[in-house]
Amino acid sequence: MYPGSLEFPNSASSAGPRVQVELGDACFSTNGIDDGMDWIAEDQIGSLGLLLGEAIERLVDSHDQEFDKRAAMMTVKTPTLTQSDAGVRFEFQVQGNRQRLQSVVINVHPQFDEDDPGAEAMQLRAECECGCISHQRDLRCPHTLASGWWLQEQMARRRGNGQLIEFLGGLKADAVAAGKQFVDELLRRAKNARPDITDQEPSRLQWRLRINVASQTTPLTITPFEQRQRKGGKGWTKGREVRSFDLLEHNLLTDPLDSQVASLTSIPTHGFREDQFGMFQALRLLAGHENVMWDDQNASPLEVFSSQLTLTLQPIEVDQATKPKPAAAKSKAKSSVKKNTKKKSSRSKSLGELVGNDASNDMGSAARNGDGESATATLTAVDESRETKAASEATPIASPDGPGDAAGDVLAAPPGETIAVQFRPRLSVEGIDIDVHNCEVIFGQTSPVEPVVVLADRQSDRVVVCTLNDSAAIGLVQFLLRDDYRDTMLDEPSAAKLALSAASIDPFIHVSLPPQLAGPVQPTTGELILQMRPRPGAGLKVALRVHDGRFRNDPVPGQPPELVPCLSDQGPVRVQRNLANELTNAQKVIELFGLNKLSSDGDHEWVAVTDHAALDLLSRLHDAGEDAPRIVWPEGETFRVRGEITPKSLRVQIDDSPDWFGVTGSVTIDGVEVPLQDLLLAVREDRQLVRVGDRKFAKISEAFRRRLTQLADTLVAEKGQLKLPSAAVPMAQEVLSDDVVLEATSAWHQAIERLDSLSNWNPDRPDGLDATLRDYQLDGYRWLSRLSRWGVGGVLADDMGLGKTVQTLGILIDRAAEGPALVIAPTSVGENWVREAAKFAPSLRPALYRDCDRDEVIKTAGPGDILIVSYQLMQRDAKRFATRSWSTLVLDEAQFIKNSQTKTSQAIRTLEADWRLGLSGTPLENHLGELWSLFRTLSPGLLGSWQRFRSRFAEPIERHNDAERREALARLVRPFILRRTKDKVLKELPPRTEITLRAELSEAERKLYEDARLAALAELTHAPTDGAKSHEGRRRIQTLSWLTRLRQLACHPALVEPTWKGTSSKLELLLSLVDELRDGDHRALVFSQFVKHLNVVREVLEKRGIPYQYLDGATPSHERQRRVDAFQNGEGDLFLISLKAGGTGLNLTAADYVLHLDPWWNPAVEDQATDRAHRIGQERPVTVYRLVAERTIEEQILQLHADKRELVAGVLDGTDAAARLQTQDLINLIKNEMA
């Protein structure tokens, strides 16, 4: 497209043939994806003004009247018009009285059927955008209304299409001028956004700490100071205090860490509690910061660390000759041991001897092993014989506190001296050499559940922040810091007692024991468990933990300590955990059971807020059996499963309304009544458990679950009430069998009796039907008769050519006395209905609506009358048809209403009819929404609302290939759809052979094709993919446009390149095939989606003198029938037919060959076209040729045909999957990546 032109894409594409209208220096062009698109033709450009006007009118009508008064007072500036790939865009500036200027955008783009790239329906859609609050709330506002009015007024002033085109051309924006303005404005804003700091000296933030142990409200204060660099870069100024709100203004927060600290310390401090949370969080962030000082007169530098408090037991050797001193070096101890082995072996004591009998008993009651038995152990902290034995018999285990064996620190005394070991309990800080007892100490919290201890060492100018695991730890730390315990020493029995109880202290303060007391290292035998506790009111608290019977407390998976002090029969041990393994296994459990979908409540802790969430989790764990972690409940607080719910416990009550039955019910377990709605909700959410009291649940039996699922598929929940559509009574009756206690009204029992009688209703062919029915046709008539007597709608979905019309005429004769029938059918088959009725049902009086006095024929229609109208005329005159009721409504080619949002579908739903019937060989083509739309019209309520149908059927089947849901849908619709295929019921029909002929593109054709394919990939790769609806729609239009272009190039380059003068490989293949067919005295139907392609074929046939007939969407109805009759009577060897225009409603059995020049997306459309020849009345075998260009998009389309054919079987027969092509799937076609 050249500069200054304006494109307007048609339907689902922005490629294809273009119609251009001059706009002065610019032009206005339309293009479409299909030559067969009616409104795109050059002589129909006049429809542009009408379509644009209708789009703006619909936009204006969508505004509430409350906007009218304000919109009328607004000033609208002349907009600019710009073009995008998806349509055109009007950009307005609108201003109200004393209001700010608002920018308004009105986008106008084609509305297309995203599931059918060849959709014929064409209309424009206008959408508006505005930044005001009203628009954000209501998606409409006075500004958008005023803009719409302005466009309406300007278009109304333009008389004729020429003036409208001139008007639009005048609005088109000058892109170059706008670009210059854009760059200038962008640079201006960027300059203003950054302050001018060229004259400013470099500065930085310094943080100063004040710790006041005596203060109860503000024990910790952190203040920011600004320092400037001295001239010549020689150091920094002392600094000045900066108020929190000045930090941004002075551009000081250039460091992310400073920004975080500033945000935490800027909260005004009025008291401790929440006001101080931020201060302690900030202090922890300052650990390692290079510019932290004391807030004193000299601003003394200090270091901030973050670490963990540890209780250590320091071994001290004590003898009679010296004062206590630290234990001897390991090498010295070892040599002493060797010299005094015999002497010292007599000093070995049992654990009971070390701690004393009373202490041992006390300790035994406080420390139990995993089985609840008293633990005994021997602790020979100073027995050198233990080391000798360990060295000779045991495998050495490295101590976590340093190298060497477990007894490496055993003390020994020189000959003649008596030596003992005592232990000094001290608080220390891991990794930092600091005397905790000489520090100033303040306690705080970084959150309500995370306490901290701050240690300030003034002598070494260091501050340490220690985070505690639990609030209870504060009391322990305060106890350990008491001055009267500062010089405390523990003798061996006391140290042993503390060692055995270290596991109870470790959750609060880490306890580090020397090897003499810690015991040997043993591997863990732990498992993952789920600790559950019911929440008050509803839901559960859930924690994932590691359980080993020796643990005092079950630790968090993957969290220290790696060595857990525990008890064993032999004494203290350290259990070795594999933290990495625990984390890996925990993550598997979290993902498998959906714990990450619950609300997080801490490290490996979650909350199932509602009973529904709790039951969902419990059901998944219950179903997993031994694969699930063990569940641990607090004593007396477990959830209990109280029995099993079976159909015998269900009581159901049914009342009646005109079009549906109301259903209520319940089961009673342990005296608690559970509503039927709760049971249905449980099966919908795939839960096995339902609540039957406080912390009590019951399991739904598997057989009952299946029946409840079927019942849930038929019931519709509306305003808290369960409704059963009349059409769904048979399915409900199957579920509510004899083992369910049922209380129902007489209307229900009458419905059941009527259904029972219908099961044996097999009427003979009606007397007024002058046709000999085949067996399957008689079965079809009887099926229709049963539906008619029942009063529910259905779909006769037989293959094309099996006589759906004659079967329908039989039921119309039966119902003739009840009133007039209305038949809505495509224009092309209207006359066929008149002929078939006159031939097979002479007692009926058919009339074509288009040939009658329209008001009169509707008003006077009575019993025995059949009024036949096209879908287009019915939509236009919908109000006229809705003025009366009809005995029978027949929708021929019912797939015309596959989109429930079209005006045609909406119009048909306004009609009042006693009974409705749909006829369609393809009731399901692309996706399940088509089936829902069909039944929304034919049997309202059967499939419920679209939201319900989508969640219960469409999404599980189409997205997740859910076989159970697919079978459930098939079971639900099976009574209302009768589908027979020709290969099953029409054994006498001649065989049909399908052959694919492949054409190899010439070198020139291949170059054109590959150039276009690569250009498509380049454009689509750079298209926005952020998921925005507007971008996705635009990207889909671009994709479909390129696909159409590639398909046309695969047919004949002249369809895309007007300058192409040569032939094409596919055309040459066709001509050779035509010559062969004519030599064999065969006649053929030739189908193409592209009218321009048929025109290329016509030119060649005329040059060669080959006789043919021709039909496309522009052929008038009477001329269509004349040409069909001429071909049937032998005029023409070929019949060239547009696929969309001639794919239905024609009987062309004079041909025994069918040639498809280009494959269509959906094979059902091609099959319909083929059935013009392969139908009742055909006496010769039919051969179908598909002409496909090798290594092109056409081969990819053929691969999709199998999926599309399986779609019908997937739902109607319940044997395979249904899916729809997404935009990325279409792009993959271009990439040749489709499998």
UniProtKB/TrEMBL annotation:
Keywords on record: ATP-binding, Helicase, Hydrolase, Nucleotide-binding
SUPFAM superfamilies recorded: P-loop containing nucleoside triphosphate hydrolases (SSF52540)
GO molecular-function terms, A-Z: ATP binding; helicase activity; hydrolase activity
InterPro entries per UniProt: Helicase_ATP-bd (IPR014001), Helicase_C-like (IPR001650), P-loop_NTPase (IPR027417), SNF2-like_sf (IPR038718), SNF2/RAD54-like_C (IPR049730), SNF2_N (IPR000330)
Region (Disordered): 322-409
Cross-referenced Pfam families: Helicase_C, SNF2-rel_dom
CDD domains: DEXQc_arch_SWI2_SNF2, SF2_C_SNF
Helicase C-terminal domain ranges (all copies): 1066-1227
UniProt key word Flavoprotein: no
Lineage: superkingdom: Bacteria
Biased composition (Basic residues): 331-347
Annotated ranges, domain Helicase ATP-binding: 785-941
UniProt protein name: Helicase, SNF2/RAD54 family
Naturally occurring in which organism (per UniProt): Rhodopirellula sallentina SM41
